[in-house]
Structure formats: C-alpha cells, structure tokens
Amino acid sequence: MGRGRDQMVNCGACGRRLPRGKAVTYERSIVFSTDLKTADDVKLMERRKCYYCPSCGKSLGIYEKKRKRAMARYNR
Ligand SMILES: [Zn+2]
After folding, report:
1. CB atoms within 10 A of CB 62
2. Which residue has the higher pLDDT, 76 or 12?
3. 31 CA from centroid of ligand 1 (Å)
C-alpha cells in the first residue's frame, strides 16, 4: 500500500475526490472590511486555498487566471 500517501481533496466545483497532486490549486484572497470610511477601517485578509479537478479548472478558467496573475507579477 504505497498509494495512500497523496492526500485526497474535494473539487470545489463538482465535489469529486481526487489526489491533491492532480488537483488544480487556486489561492484566492477574501477581504473582510468594516465598510467604515475612516482611517480606522479594519480590513482582514484571508487566503483560502481551493482545489479543483483539471476539467473544472479548465471550465472555470483557472489556468487563464493563473497565467494573468503571473504576468502581472512579472510586469511589476
Ligand atoms: Zn471538478
């Protein structure tokens, strides 16, 4: 039994279980804000990792987003 090492994750779109090594990881940041228009405005950033199966990753355009992100970082 050498195959149980890869952690299983659920696809965020279709819920299919797949090994993490095959999943598409997409990290998105969620911003919580108090919506006060003052200097004391509290902002919380939370980074959440989402996993998707390759087919959902394609249909959701995650590959595309990832590429754009990389480009943005490169152009900075
Ligand atoms: Zn899926």
Report:
1. 20
2. 12
3. 25
